[in-house]
Write a structure and sequence with these properties.
By secondary structure, the protein is an alpha/beta fold. Helix content is 54%, strand content 10%. The protein has a single domain, classed as Helix Hairpins (Orthogonal Bundle). The radius of gyration is 19 Å and the shape is elongated. It starts with a helix and ends with a strand.
C-alpha cells in the first residue's frame, strides 16, 4: 500500500508542478494573436451573421436561452457579483470529493462515503482527474482575465463539457472565438462541448 501511495503522491506532485509552470508560462508563445495568425475560421464565420455553425461553441447572451448550461451553473449565474462565491462553492465541492477519495486510497473504511465502493486504483484515477480539471479551470480563467475581462468562471465536468461564464455586458463573435480557442487548447475538448455565457 505504501508503494502505491508514493506513486500517487509522485503523480500528484508532477501534475501540480506542470500546472504551476503552465500558469506562469502557458500563455507565452501560445496565445492567439489576430495580427500574427489572422482570424480564426470560426471568427470569420461568426462575423458574417448569427446563423448556427456546426461544431461551434455555444454562446448564451445575457438572459437568453440557458438550456445548454447545467442547473447548478445556472443557479450561480442568477444575480450579480457571484463569481467569488461560486468559485468558493466549486472549490468546496472539489475539496470534499478529494477528501473522500483520499480516505479510500488511505484505506479508511467509511460506509457513509458514497464513493466507498470504488477500488483504490479507481479512487487514485478520480483524484488525479479532479486535480487536473481544477488546474485546467484555473488556467483558463487566468488567460481569459489576461484578455481584459474583469472576471471569469470555468466549470469542466467529468464528461469533458466546459461552461465558461465571463463578467461582461456582452461578448462579440471575436471574443467568443478567442475564449473558445483558449478552452480548446488547454482543456483539449471539442468546440461543440464548450458553452460561453456573459453575465453583468
Amino acid at each position: 500500500m505504501k508503494r502505491k501511495q508514493i506513486i500517487v503522491l509522485g503523480l500528484v506532485l508532477v501534475i501540480i508542478a506542470v500546472g504551476i509552470l503552465q500558469y506562469n508560462y502557458g500563455d507565452a508563445g501560445e496565445s492567439y494573436n489576430e495580427n500574427t495568425y489572422g482570424d480564426l475560421p470560426i471568427t470569420s464565420a461568426l462575423e458574417g451573421d448569427d446563423k448556427e455553425i456546426p461544431g461551434a461553441a455555444v454562446y448564451v447572451n445575457g438572459e437568453a436561452d440557458t438550456s445548454n448550461i447545467d442547473d447548478e451553473t445556472e443557479k450561480q449565474v442568477q444575480g450579480t457579483g457571484y463569481f467569488a462565491e461560486a468559485r468558493m462553492e466549486r472549490n468546496k465541492v472539489r475539496s470534499r470529493q478529494k477528501d473522500e477519495l483520499k480516505a479510500i486510497i488511505d484505506g479508511v473504511d467509511d460506509a457513509a462515503t458514497p464513493t466507498s465502493s470504488l477500488t483504490v486504483e479507481e479512487a487514485q484515477q478520480q483524484l488525479i482527474d479532479i486535480i487536473r480539471r481544477s488546474e485546467i479551470e484555473n488556467t483558463i480563467e487566468t488567460l481569459i482575465k489576461q484578455r481584459g475581462f474583469e472576471d471569469a468562471l470555468t466549470y469542466m465536468s467529468e464528461t469533458g463539457n466546459v461552461d465558461v461564464i465571463v463578467k461582461a455586458e456582452s461578448l462579440t463573435a471575436v471574443e467568443v472565438a478567442n475564449i473558445s480557442d483558449i478552452v480548446v487548447r488547454h482543456a483539449n475538448v471539442e468546440m461543440e462541448n464548450i458553452t460561453v455565457k456573459n453575465v453583468n
